[in-house]
UniProtKB/TrEMBL annotation:
Organism field: Lactobacillus iners DSM 13335
Keywords from the UniProt entry: Protein biosynthesis, Transferase
Single GO cellular component term: cytosol
Function: Attaches a formyl group to the free amino group of methionyl-tRNA(fMet). The formyl group appears to play a dual role in the initiator identity of N-formylmethionyl-tRNA by promoting its recognition by IF2 and preventing the misappropriation of this tRNA by the elongation apparatus.
Gene3D superfamilies to which the protein is assigned, alphabetical: 3.40.50.12230
A Pfam family: Formyl_trans_C
Residues in Formyl transferase C-terminal domain copies: 204-301
Class in the EC hierarchy, top level: transferase
Gene Ontology molecular function: methionyl-tRNA formyltransferase activity
Name under which the protein is recorded: Methionyl-tRNA formyltransferase
Chain sites annotated for binding (6S)-5,6,7,8-tetrahydrofolate: S110, L111, L112, P113
Family stated for the protein in its record: Belongs to the Fmt family.
Plastid among keywords: no
């Protein structure tokens, strides 16, 4: 039976892990990020990968920093056939990768060499790409730079968010991985090198990038909303108060107002952006409150904003 150490954290990784379990691979250990506190009540939440591991009675490791952890020595001693990662969120020591008897491979959520790094799905939306996909690569010391064992592309629909793309790509990644592993074992697949001239990086989203700014066009603002839904959420500053925007729509109309003005709040909350473009806010979340449909916001807090007034600050 082919043995695997699996490393992953969010649902993307959980889907891949469950696929390996269902196909009969021997999961020697599961490594995932430590439980984290969320919300005002600071309740402790387990990662989606941990939930799958617990449901299948698998050995779980949750070091804060894998390379400096006590767990590292135990993991080094396992020496599995494969080390498989899928959205784990930490760099892996070379000495650990070298313990794989066959290969250490990663399920990466982009069409490499485009979008190496920790936020490939988000950047595909931010940049308005028409396609994204999954690539299976060998893990090497350099980030996401290993040889490729296969890739699969899908179209990005107009209503996709990072959440919906994560779900789609997790299934594609699972299926592609389960096709690739037997071929690697049987020496039936020849990996290809990435074209270094086409490398694009996708570093983790910074706090500053979460803000919708008046320098953006409506399309750029809309793409940011999609990219940061469901986590961490894009926000806009209106009258110096922060509001998260969970759903939006680019208007087909244009206006002569400068960026940041309220264009309309008659059954819609429309704001002007760069180049005369207009963004309709469809779902909004005031700080400390739950997300609400824009019609409910207009009927409540909307009376503090006046049409023709500059309401957005950077």
């Amino acid at each position: 039976m082919t043995s695997v150490i699996f490393l992953g954290t969010p649902k993307f990784g959980a889907v891949v892990l469950q696929g390996l379990i269902d196909q009969g691979y021997k999961i020697e250990a599961v490594v995932t990020q430590p439980d984290k506190k969320f919300g005002r009540k600071q309740e402790l939440h387990q990662s989606e990968v941990k939930k799958v591991a617990l449901a299948n009675n698998l050995k779980i490791y949750q070091p804060l920093h894998l390379s400096k952890s006590e767990e590292m020595n135990e993991l080094l001693s396992i020496r599995p056939d494969f080390i498989v990662t899928a959205a784990y969120g930490q760099f892996l020591p070379t000495k650990f990768l070298q313990t794989a008897k066959i290969k250490a491979i990663n399920v990466h959520g982009s069409l490499l060499p485009k979008y190496r790094g920790g936020a490939p799905i988000q950047y595909s939306l931010i940049n308005g790409d028409k396609q994204t996909g999954v690539t299976i690569i060998e893990m090497v010391k350099k980030m996401d730079a290993g040889e490729m064992y296969g890739s699969r592309a899908i179209d990005i629909s107009d209503d996709d968010t990072s959440g919906s793309l994560f779900e789609k790509l997790s299934i594609i990644g699972r299926d592609l991985l389960l096709e690739v592993i037997p071929k690697i074992i049987a020496n039936q697949i020849v990996p290809t090198c990435q074209d270094e001239d086409k490398v694009v990086f996708s570093p983790n989203i910074s706090k500053d990038q979460e803000q919708i700014k008046t320098s953006m066009t409506a399309t750029q603002a809309h793409n940011l909303v999609r990219a940061l839904n469901p986590q961490p959420g894009a926000y806009i500053l209106m009258h110096n108060k922060r509001y998260k925007i969970w759903q939006s729509e680019v208007s087909a109309e244009k206006c002569s107002l400068e960026s940041g003005y309220l264009v309309s709040k008659n059954k819609e909350f429309a704001i002007s952006f760069s180049n005369g473009t207009i963004l309709k806010i469809l779902n909004i979340q005031p700080t400390g409150k739950k997300p609400i449909a824009i019609k409910d916001f207009i009927n409540g807090q909307g009376n503090q904003f006046k049409v023709g007034e500059k309401i957005v600050e950077d």
